[in-house]
Amino acid sequence: MWLPSAGDPRMSGRPDAVRRKWEVRRPADEGFPVCDRGTELKLVIPSPHDGGPDRLGSMIGLFWIEQDKVCLGAPPVEEDPGVFLSPAGVSVGEQTWLWKDVTDLQVLDVPVRSATVRWATRVTAVIAAALNFWGPDGPSMMTAVVHAQDERVETPVFSAAATAYAQREVDLSLGLLSHFVRGSASPSLLTQWWGESRPAAVLHSRDREAVLEGWLTPLM
Prior knowledge:
Distance between the termini: 34 Å
Strand content: 25-35%
Number of strands: 14
Largest sheet: 6 strands, antiparallel
């Protein structure tokens, strides 16, 4: 089964569609110093599917986390199917696989930045889209690959990082994904964290790594 790939012509122009989906909420007494440490920035995602109020979420590694949803990469927009993770399994569009049937879950083409430029790219969340922090070509396109029984399903997902991820953040994320596949951990870890912490600001990469390490350490 094949879903549109990163090179699919139907995907052209999608970054503009992504930008239209986001807005920034910040305290009324704040200015607009986007990169200032401590600026309270939140991402608001329209929820056209359920008609409910706007939802808040947070990026941790390769995951986007909301109160009751976890997806790989940036949250999908418009007709993108998205790749969603739940305690029961993996969903891509209308298709769902139980974890017991999933043999591997990969994320390819992940943009990774070098450690030498890590300090220069601190604003690393989808919120950068609304602030035009992505490059002229928009967010990087990654590919999620689900291996389940005799199926191999590829689907494009946008990166949630403004420029690129730190290598350690990627490694920790992939490690956690492998635990989901093996059944030794559940995506409920992520939604539980969101419910308990609900971060009011964009976490820096080292803080996100610390969260990932907190999830992984008990599994070692």
